[in-house]
């Protein structure tokens, strides 16, 4: 992130609750549960009042929701509706590059790159329009997050590993 | 009069009418402010009520509901509508549930430190900043990151969000797809217009603007936009009133022409008899134009209707003319009676003038001028123009039969007694309450519109239109200070569920004292920079990231305090200025309430405030206004009655004869009242006004039937003239009775019933009816 000198690392669980609902549970560095449901995001942090805001105000989350729900649910038409899809590689080792179709979303999120093996997505890179990058290591890869990660090291992890 | 003279007179008359017409066309300004037609306020609460009804924040609010598509599509439409309307200067506030930071005025941004309550409990020291920055860091790895990222350098303590939370309406509808939705799957929006609620021209423009923007949005095809609120209502009312008045006027005019052609079979008589009416109407409007800055639209619509009375004058002249008799001589014979009728009608309309309601005053000026002009032109101008040879209506065979029928009607002395007894019985046994005190019942709004408004208002948590908290102090700052003192007490009531939400002026702008205290707590640049440096120690924030924040705090330290005047120039300040009003050397703050559950608790709080705060019940104030108003009309009516009795007794020079005129009239008036009450109608001010009008018409019938000419042919002419008058009145007012506008309906029904009853009773109670018949035999 541009406004930070070092990348920010957090770990936890991302779960699909069915339908348009996702739960993001963070264990490190601070406990936090965020739920996306019915166009609303509710954020609950230990010892603080819950905060909620509209999904419209967080396009990043909208994209996350769209891509995740479509991927996990195997809903190709939904994925196609939200993104222009570029597919690379083979069944063993593949890369999907998703570009948001909604111009409003595209102003915030430039693209999403998902790397995977077989049935399992391993890594999700969200390129924000202002140059910031968020990288999610998924599944077994998550355990291999370095203590002081750099973009390059993580990219290598995603592609190679 | 020789033909040449006639031509000159006609030309001069038409010229005079053209002159009046030119004056009217040049000076006439029609107002549609409904308040002109409401009673004049006397107490401070009533005055506040009238202002609130017209210009208060509540009256400027338009409630919008979008329906007919999927939630997601409606949400997109809602966002599109908001984006377009916020750019439009006609709207001071547009809300749909999503708070957009862009609505905040850039110049006011440094003021956030003076407006937000943060500094009341915290100070900008290292501990506070460290805690805040740690939270921001957590935010950055949370879903809210993209939302907050842009704010961070300038506003790491998120004062802008605190203000946004503070300023969003206290009770909001459910959020779906990021915007407000009702339980009926409608996307909801609140729009505050810059124009006052009862400025229908501006409101027409504002409502049309919304519809235009809506229909221009991509994807709006198939979606439905519903508008509600006082401003929209004033649009509906003015359109409806105009539409119906035009429609009713056209049909009545055609019917009236046909009736007169049938009655007199002379086109020239018909055309000439229109001259007194045309003169009356033009002179009436000219008088209004000269006396009042603006003429009320309803005055004109009603005034033309009421002038139907004046059509009686030429009708009497036409009907009463004998074959071969000179028109001037014939009018001279009728004039004493006509003059009595005109004088007493004018006196009755004086009661309207005394009502103290601007619209009714105008109506009185219009009608009195009109009646006098119609009467005098009928007497002194019309006869000179009428054709020399006419057909004597007395010779018409059907009239002979009709007169014989009327004369042969049994007239037992107990009929009036029976009618009187029935009247009393109906009045006593009638269901419901006698008087209609609800001001809303007078404003001609369809019930379904009102219900829809109530539903949307409830869904949007829009302020209750019934109650207001009034804070009073010597100046605006005093009101704000008072409002700050009241805030915790009012919040305690909200916590106890006495009321769902309260909005006080200090929610938008703290008093100068509070702002100054917060300003003094702001550290200077060096101190803040040091605290910030210490706080960011060990945190990964980029160096100098928060320079804009340090700059803003420094700016805020030297800002002149934000006054209501300066604040009013911003979008949000518009809202405040609607809540702060100057009045008679002091200032009032208007607190709006939503969802009042416990009025007693609010009253208790108001009582404890030593008169600095009170609870205004707008419904109660408006009902007291109506009662006041009615008392005034009734008092005026009493005076008018006494004057009328005196006029008629003086004119007829006999108490007994005056009794014969006034008894049927009085009985018929009470009979109308009794029948309407028995139908379950609650008597409103407009019913009263219509009763007066009917009584004026009834007076004509009774006066002419009472007249003892000793000539059966003349008695037949009287019957002819009266029948034409009754039929024309029934035509005009019967049409009004079918109107969907409550006020027009009240007037139409009352006058129609009145005309029928007055006619029947004045025939049945006429003293000489039988004599004429006897002498004829």
Concise structural overview:
Chain A is of the alpha+beta class and 161 residues long.
Question: Could you outline the blueprint of secondary structure elements for this entry?
Answer:
The complex is a heterodimer of chains A (161) and B (777).
Chain A (H helix, E strand, L loop, with lengths): L10 E8 L2 E8 L3 E6 L2 E6 L5 E4 L4 H15 L2 H7 E7 L3 E8 L2 H4 L2 E9 L2 E9 L4 E5 L13 H9 L2
Chain B lengths: L2 H25 L2 E2 L12 H12 L5 E7 L3 H16 L4 E5 L16 H4 L2 H4 L4 H15 L4 H5 L9 H9 L6 E3 L2 E3 L5 E7 L6 H17 L7 E5 L1 H35 L2 H25 L3 E2 H10 L5 H8 L7 H27 L4 H23 L1 H4 L11 H12 L5 H16 L17 H14 L6 E7 L2 H20 L3 E5 L8 H10 L3 H12 L10 H11 L6 H4 L3 H9 E4 L2 E11 L2 H10 L4 E5 H35 L2 H24 L6 H22 L5 H26 L4 H23 L4 H8 L1
Parallel strand pairs in B: 1-8
Antiparallel strand pairs in B: 2-6, 2-7, 3-6, 4-5, 9-12, 9-13, 10-12, 11-12
Tell me about this structure.
The complex is a heterodimer of chains A (161) and B (777). A 5-stranded antiparallel β-sheet of chain A has the order 1-2-3-4-5, with helices on one face. In chain A, strands 6-7-8-9-10 form a 5-stranded antiparallel β-sheet, sandwiched between helices. Chain A has 161 residues and is α+β, with helices and mostly antiparallel strands. Helix content of chain A is 22%, strand content 43%. Chain A has one domain: outer membrane lipoprotein receptor (LolB), chain A (Clam), CATH 2.50.20. Chain A is built from 4 helices and 10 strands; from the N terminus they run βββββααββαβββα. Chain A has helices at 59-73, 76-82, 103-106, 151-159; strands at residues 11-18, 21-28, 32-37, 40-45, 51-54, 83-89, 93-100, 109-117, 120-128, 133-137. The model of chain A has no long low-confidence stretch (mean pLDDT 78). Chain B is α+β, with helices and mostly antiparallel strands. Among the domains of chain B are: 1-31 and 266-391, no CATH class; 105-167, no CATH class; 397-429 and 654-777, Multidrug efflux transporter AcrB transmembrane fold (Up-down Bundle), CATH 1.20.1640.10; 463-512 and 555-619, Alpha-Beta Plaits. Chain B is 64% helix and 8% strand. Chain B contains 32 helices and 13 strands. In chain B, strand 11 (580-583) and strand 12 form a beta hairpin. In chain B, helix 1 runs parallel beside helix 11 (267-291), helix 14 runs antiparallel to helix 15 (358-380) and helix 14 packs antiparallel against helix 29. The radius of gyration of chain B is 35 Å and the shape is elongated. Chain B starts with a helix and ends with a helix. The interface between A and B is medium-sized, with 38 and 28 residues.
